[in-house]
Write a structure and sequence with these properties.
The complex is a heterodimer of chains A (78) and B (217). Chain A has 78 residues and is an all-beta fold. Chain A has strands at 2-5, 15-21, 28-29, 34-40, 43-48, 53-58, 65-67, 71-77. The mean pLDDT of chain A is 95. In chain B, a hairpin with a 2-residue loop joins strand 8 (137-142) and strand 9. Chain B has a single domain (10-216), classed as Bira Bifunctional Protein, Domain 2 (BirA Bifunctional Protein, domain 2). In chain B, strands 1, 2, 6, 7, 8, 9, 10 and 11 form an eight-stranded mixed sheet that branches. By secondary structure, chain B is α/β, with parallel strands linked by helices. Chain B has helices at 20-35, 67-72, 109-125, 190-194, 200-216, and strands spanning 10-18, 41-48, 51-54, 76-79, 86-89, 93-100, 132-134, 137-142, 145-155, 158-166, 186-187. The longest helix of chain B has 17 residues, at 109-125. Classes of the chains: A mainly beta (78), B alpha/beta (217). At the A-B interface, strand 4 and strand 5 of A face helix 3 and strand 9 of B.
């Protein structure tokens, strides 16, 4: 399983809110395609899939706030 | 606080007056070119037809007028994939979109937002206006009035959307239809503060001059 981790987004940014998942659990995702959109301050940030595979678990849902370094989802790599 | 291009190339596009959707599509084309490394970075200058846009942090509740009223005024409402809440764009407002590949600069959302504010403040200084940013609030202010709004979208560390700066006095009329950025604030413009006409083309020239100064230091 590959962990999708919220990366460092910049100095002073400790968390971000999930605004949109581009895929649902069980769907196939491709490496580098937009996986999830997050909102922070005046910016939206799209996190790409780190690998190709099946999105097996979404840990944080839309509207939830996530800390930098936390695992957002798990992908079963192809 | 500099975004040094260090030999990278950037392109400048001036789309003139254009509706929001066409400019949005244009940005996406440039974004794809940046993603494919066909260009390094670009800025897009334009002026929009009247439109209210709602960012990811906003909602329709921030619009104070009815749809009928807005229809009568030919003001469209659109949802945009940028950060921030609700804002208005229209003739007399300089809109600048930044398709910047932050992989070449610094991968820091806040740093880039603060850099945009610094660029906007430098531009306003050229009119002898003392503008400032406010802690915790993005955008550019003169005293307690907001003169420029900022909202961006970042994918693969490449930005799009950007900043809108009120140049002409008339652009302020339609801000009364919204709660700008979801707040009860007053907006202002360069003309309103100077008390004199400002040619839009002159404002664009000054902006590009500020941009070059900020990018090269």
């Amino acid at each position: 399983m590959v962990k999708v981790i919220l990366p460092e987004l910049g100095e002073g940014i400790e968390r971000a809110t999930i605004s949109y998942w581009y895929y649902q659990e069980g769907q196939k995702v491709n490496k580098d395609n937009d996986l999830v959109e997050l909102v922070t301050d005046k910016a939206t940030f799209n996190l790409p899939a780190p690998c190709s595979g099946i999105l097996s678990q979404i840990i944080f849902k839309e509207g939830q706030t996530v800390n930098i370094g936390e695992v957002l989802a798990l992908i079963e790599e192809e | 606080m500099l975004l040094r291009l260090s030999g990278l190339k950037y392109q400048i596009f001036d789309l003139g007056r254009i509706d929001f959707i066409h400019a949005w599509n244009f940005q996406k084309e440039i974004f794809l070119k940046a993603k494919m490394h066909l260009i390094d970075s670009a800025i897009v200058l334009c002026e929009h037809d009247p439109v209210i846009t709602i960012g990811r942090g906003g909602s329709k509740k921030e619009i104070l007028a009815s749809c009928q009223e807005l229809n009568k005024m030919n003001i469209k409402i659109l949802y945009a994939d940028r950060g921030g809440k609700t804002t208005y764009h229209g003739p007399g407002q300089l809109v600048v979109y930044f398709i910047f590949n932050l992989n070449y600069f610094r991968k820091d959302l806040h740093y880039f937002l603060r850099w945009l504010e610094k660029l906007g403040i430098s531009f306003l200084n050229k009119f002898n206006l003392k503008a400032n940013s406010k802690a915790g609030l993005s955008g550019i202010w003169i005293d307690n009035k907001k003169i420029a709004s900022i909202g961006i979208c970042v994918k693969n560390w490449i930005t799009y959307h950007g900043m809108s700066i009120n140049v002409k006095k008339d652009v302020l009329d339609n801000f009364y239809f919204i709660r700008p950025c979801g707040m009860d604030i007053e907006m202002t413009s360069i003309e309103s503060i100077l008390g004199q006409d400002v040619l839009f083309s002159y404002a664009k020239r000054l902006f590009l001059s500020s941009f070059k100064e900020e990018i090269y230091g």
